[in-house]
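Reproducibility note. Readers wishing to regenerate the assembly model reported in the main text can use the exact inputs given here. Chain order matters: entities are listed in the order in which they were concatenated for prediction.
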Amino acid sequence: MTQALDTARKHLLQPAGLTDGDLDRVLAVLCAPGLDGGDLYFQAAHQESWVLEDGIVKEGGYSIERGVGVRALSGDKTGFAYSDDIGMAALMEAAGAARAIGRAQQDGRVAVRREVTPRDLYPPLDPLGTLDEQARIRLLQSLDAEARRQDPRVSQVIVSLAGTHEVVMVLQTDGTLAADVRPLVRLNVHVIAEDGHGRREQGSAGGGGRSGYDFFLDRERGLGYAREAVRQALVNLEAVDAPAGTMTVVLGPGWPGVLLHEAVGHGLEGDFNRKGTSAFSGRIGERVAAPGVTVVDDGTLEGRRGSLNVDDEGTPTNHTVLIEDGVLRGYMQDRLNARLTGMPLTGNGRRESYAHLPMPRMTNTYMLAGPHDPGEILASVDKGLYAVNFGGGQVDITSGKFVFSASEAYLIEGGRVTRPVKGATLIGNGPDVLTRVSMVGNDLALDTGVGTCGKEGQSVPVGVGQPTLRVDGLTVGGTQS
Amino acid sequence: MSQAQSPELDPKALEAVVAQVLEEARRAGATAAEAAASRDSGLSVNVRLGEVETLEYHRDQGVAVTVYMGQCKGAASTSDLRPESLREAARAASRIARFTTEDPCAGLADAHLMARDWPDLDLDHPWGVSADEAIERARICEAAARERDARIVNSEGASLDSFRGASVYGNTHGFLGGYVTTRHGLSCSVLASEGAGGMQRDHWYTVARHAGDLEDAAAVGVRAADRALRRLGGRRLSTRRCPVVYAPDVARSVIGHFLGAIRGGALYRKASFLLDHLGRPVFPEFVHIHEQPHLPRALGSAPFDHEGVATRPRDLVTEGHLSGYLLDSYSARRLGMETTGNAGGVHNVTIDAGEQDLEGLLREMGTGLLVTELIGHGVNTVTGDYSRGAAGFWVEGGEIRHPVEEITVAGNLRDMFMNLRAVGRDVDRRGNIRTGSLLIDGLTVAGE
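Running the prediction on these inputs yields the following C-alpha cells for the assembly.
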C-alpha cells in the first residue's frame, strides 16, 4: 500500500470505524443496474492563516473540514449527495440519494480494487508542522520590516500567510482506489504607498506551492515578495493614465500567462466541448494560434501550486498538449466527459471539496519558450503597451471574449519602455488572440504560485506561465483615447 | 424521491452548540468570545436539453469561534459539531490568541449595542419541492427558452435550487440569537447562433425567499432566450468617450464599488478613494442611498449583524453627500466612531429610483452605450480607477442600433459617481443592492 493510502485510511476511515467491506457495501449501491457507476471522495483538511497589519499580528485562524461526497452516474446524468459525517449510516443515506438519478432499485457488484500508483510531486507533509508558531510570526514580521525598510513612502503593509494540509481518498466503482496527501502554503504582501501629495497606490506580491513553510525562507523568497510589492506600488505612484484602443501589446513572462488561462484554457475544458458551448468546440486539428505557439497543461510539475499526484477522481495527472505549433490538439477531461466523448483521460477532474462535484479544470497551464530575446521583442515595437503584472481575468467561453487586468504596465515608444501607466483591463477574442502572437520569447517562467481559478462557484489552486510575448492587436481599456 | 428540506433545522439545537463552544472558550482561558453556527440543507437540479443532468442534495453545517485573551484574538472553525470537536476548535482559537499581538481595538461589539427585540422579517418559507417537481419546473423553463426561436441552438440548461438554513450567533455579553431563512431560485442559460457568426450565450434568473414570489418558469426561459438572441451580430466600436447606461443587473456592481469604498476596512487602511469624504458631496444632489435591513422577505434583510449588533434603517448618501460609512466594531474603533451594524456586510442597500424606465433613460442619453454585461476585475478601490470588459448595445437617437462586444468601459469611480445623471425606475430586487438603470456621463469606451 502506498504511503498516501496508509495516511488516508488513518485520517479518514479509521476514526469512523469504516472497513473495506463497508466501503464495498456503499459502492454496491452505486453499481446498480441502470447506473454507470460512481465514486466516493473522502476528504479531511485543516488550514491555518495569519495576518499581520500595522506591524502587529492581528489575526490568526484555524479550520477543520472533513466529509465525504458520493456520486452516481447514469449516461450524462449525475446524482450527488455529501455528508460531513463520515459514518456508515450517512454514507448509505448519501449513496441512496445519489443513485436516485438512475431510478435504480437494487444493488450491484463492485469491481476488484485496483490501487493507483500516484506520482510523487510533493512531500506528504503537514505545513503546520514545518515551522513553529514563533517562527511563523517572525517570518511575518521580517516581511513587514523589509517592506517598510525599502522606502519611507510605504504607509501600510499587510502580510498574510496560510497553510493547508489535505488528505483525500477516492474509490471508483470500477475498482480504482487512490489517495493523496496535499500540502499547500501561500504568502502574500500587500503595500500601500503615499507620495506626500495625497496620492496613494498599491502593490502586491506573493507566492507559494505544495511544500512546507520553509519554502519562504529558502533563498529569501518571502523577503523578495516584500521588495517586489513595494517596487510595484512605487512604480504605480508615477503612473499616468493608460491609453485606450487597440494596439500592440508585449506581455511579460510568468504570471501574465493568465492570458492563456482565460483566452484558451477554459475554452478547452472537456465539459464545454462535449456540450458544444465553447468557441473551441469541434476544432481539434484546426489552427488556433500562430506557428511556434505551443500550450500545455501540466499537473506533473514538482511542488507547484497547480500540481496534483492524482486528480480528484483518482486519475494520475498528465502533461497534456493543448495547442502544438499553433494547432489545437486536445481538451482537458474528467471521467464523465472523457467517457461520453470517447477521449482519453487527462487527469483534470478536480473539485473544490467533498461537497462539490468534480469537473474538468486546469492544473498548471503555460506556453513553451520560443526563439526571441525579450529585449529584441520590446525593440520591435514602435508604439504599444508593455504589461508585466496582472490581477485576475475572466472569459465568456461561448463568445470567446476574455479580459485580464494589468496592475503594472508601461508605454513602449520607439522600441523603448518609457512611462508607467495605470492599470487597465485588456480585452480580446480567445479563438483569435493567439493567432496574433508574432514573437515568442526565450524566457519561459511560471508564476510564483498565487493563482486561484473559479468555475461554477468552485475555486481550485492553479498555475500559469509563459515567456515574453508580442501580441499584435489587443484592446487596452485605458482612458486616454 | 426524498424531500428537499430536512426537518433538523432547529435553531435551538444550534443555540446549544454556540453556548457550548463559548463555554469551552471560557474554560480555555478566554476573557471574551463569540461564535456563529449554521446548518443548511437544499436541493439543486439541472436539466439540459430536456434531460436531468445533475441532481444534488446539499447539507452543510459549521461553527466559527473567535476568542479574546485580553486584547489578543484567535479564531477557529469546524464543520463537525460534536462536543469534542467544539472543544478542539475553542482550544485551537485560544492557542492562536497566544501568538497574536495586543490590539487595543480588538474585542466584541459594545454590549449596549446588542439587538434586543427584533421583528419577524418573514424570511423562512420552506418549499418542500420534491426532486421530481424541481426537475419538471426546470424542464418547463428550459423548453420555453429552446422553443422561443430556431436560433436558440444549444443550452447550458435550467437549474432549480431550494435551500433552507438556520444560523445562530452568540457572545459572552450574553447575546444569543438566531433565525431561519429560505432561498429558492430558478435560472436558465441558452446559446443563440445565426449563420456563420459566432455563438452568443445569455441567461436569466429569479430568486426569492418564498417560492410563490419566483417568476414564472416559462417566462424565465423566454427572457434568457431573448437576451441571448439580442446579442447576435455584435460588433466592436471605435474608441470614444460617451455616456453609458448600465442596465439594472450590472448597475448593481457600480453601487457595489461605492460600498467597497466606504467600508471601514478600506477607510482605516487608507485604501479608499473616498477617504475623509464623510459629509462631502460624492454624488449629484438628487441621489439618496440608504439601507433597509428590515424589509420583509427581502434577500438582504437581517435583524442583527455578525456581531449581534441591532441593524436599523439608515442613510449612506443624503442629497448627494456621503452621510454614513459601513463599519463593524473593529473598524469603528480604529476610526474613533461607533459600529453601524455592518459586520458581515450590508442589508438591502437601495438607491432611490427615478421616474423613467430604461427606454426613457436611453432617450435621455440620446447617443451612447447601453451596458448589459461586465466582465473582469479592473477596479482599484485605492485610486478609484475603473476599467472593465463590457458588452451591450449602441444607442443613437435614444434607440438601440446594434449589439456591441469586445470593448471596455473606463473612468474613475469618483468622477463616475459625480457624473450620474439619472436613476431608472426599473429596479432589480434580486439582490442585496437594489438599483434601477444608471445613466453616467463621460466614460471612455475602448475598442477598435
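We highlight two features of this model. The CA atoms of residues 350 and 434 of chain B lie 5 Å apart. Confidence is low (pLDDT under 50) at residues 1-7 of chain B.
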